Each structure stands twice: as structure tokens, then as C-alpha cells.
């Protein structure tokens, strides 16, 4: 899967991907042993296509690379790759990529009647109350986080 950069800000890089190709990778379906491996594992013949696994709506799926530590307590670390689906309905408590006042940001959305809050998952950052004065859209919902180990 080839990523193409669409936009970059100080807090997030946004990409699109070519999902027209299939990427089949070997897949261990029976679980991964943390002890002694089974000799039968040498004969596995199962594969997985990451596009089919993670991309439910190809035309509305984008990728973002996290910059910063505001979502660290939600498990989103600097450099993580986010899979973002723009077709999903933004609902309370989801992690979303939002565009506010010219910047992309990833935050947990809290919806209280007609008020939207963007809440960081790091005590160093204060919640952001979205007001009528803000240029604001909920751009997409984070569906998957891909981490390097």
C-alpha cells in the first residue's frame, strides 16, 4: 500500500492510499505462542489482505501520522499511523481527526447537547470548547492505530 501525502500541519500528517492493489501477507490464524512454537507452524498457508482488513470504505479512508503527545493516554503515540474513515458518524467519546481554525488535530470528541469539546488524553493539555467563532469540522473518525515496536 503506497501512501500519498495530502496535507501536513504541526500536529498531524494526512495521507491517502492506493487501495486498488491487494497486499497478501502470511497470517497466523491460530494465535501466536509466547512459549515453544509448534513445528506445524512451518506449514501455514493462510494470508491476509491489509486493505480488506482495515479499509471498509476505500473512497473515504485516509491515513494520518500522529505528531505530539496529546493523546498518549489513549494509546496514540508520536509517529503512530492512524486509519481515518470520513464516512462514519461522529458520536460522543470517539477519537476523531478534526480541523479547527486552520489546523488538523486528533482528539476525543465529547458532545453535550449543542456543545462539542475536543479532549486530549494527556493531563498537560486543556479541553478545547468549540464555539461559533471557530472554523471547525469533524473530518473523520479514527478506526485503527498502527504502531511500530
Automatic annotation (TrEMBL):
Protein known as: Peptidase S24
Organism, as annotated: Lutibacter profundi
Organism superkingdom: Bacteria
Classification via InterPro entries: LexA-like (IPR039418), LexA/Signal_pep-like_sf (IPR036286), LexA_repressor (IPR050077), Peptidase_S24_LexA (IPR006197), Peptidase_S24_S26A/B/C (IPR015927)
Molecular function in Gene Ontology: DNA binding; hydrolase activity
Alphabetized PANTHER family for the sequence: LEXA REPRESSOR, LEXA REPRESSOR-RELATED
Family to which the UniProt record says this protein belongs: Belongs to the peptidase S24 family.
Keyword DNA damage: yes
Keywords: Autocatalytic cleavage, DNA damage, DNA repair, Hydrolase, SOS response
Peptidase S24/S26A/S26B/S26C domain location: 26-142
GO biological process, one term: regulation of DNA-templated transcription
Amino acid at each position: 500500500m503506497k501512501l500519498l501525502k495530502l496535507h501536513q500541519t504541526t500536529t498531524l500528517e494526512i495521507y491517502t492510499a492506493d487501495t486498488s492493489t491487494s497486499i497478501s501477507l502470511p497470517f497466523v490464524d491460530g494465535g501466536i505462542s509466547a512459549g515453544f512454537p509448534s513445528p506445524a507452524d512451518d506449514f501455514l498457508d493462510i494470508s491476509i489482505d491489509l486493505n480488506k482488513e482495515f479499509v471498509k470504505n476505500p473512497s473515504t479512508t485516509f491515513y494520518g501520522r500522529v505528531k505530539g503527545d496529546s493523546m498518549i493516554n489513549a494509546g496514540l503515540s508520536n509517529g503512530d499511523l492512524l486509519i481515518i474513515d470520513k464516512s462514519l458518524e461522529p458520536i460522543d467519546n470517539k477519537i476523531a481527526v478534526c480541523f479547527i481554525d486552520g489546523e488538523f488535530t486528533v482528539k476525543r470528541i465529547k458532545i453535550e447537547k449543542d456543545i462539542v469539546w475536543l479532549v486530549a488524553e494527556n493531563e498537560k493539555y486543556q479541553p478545547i470548547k468549540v464555539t461559533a467563532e471557530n472554523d471547525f469540522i469533524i473530518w473523520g473518525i479514527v478506526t485503527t492505530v498502527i504502531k511500530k515496536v
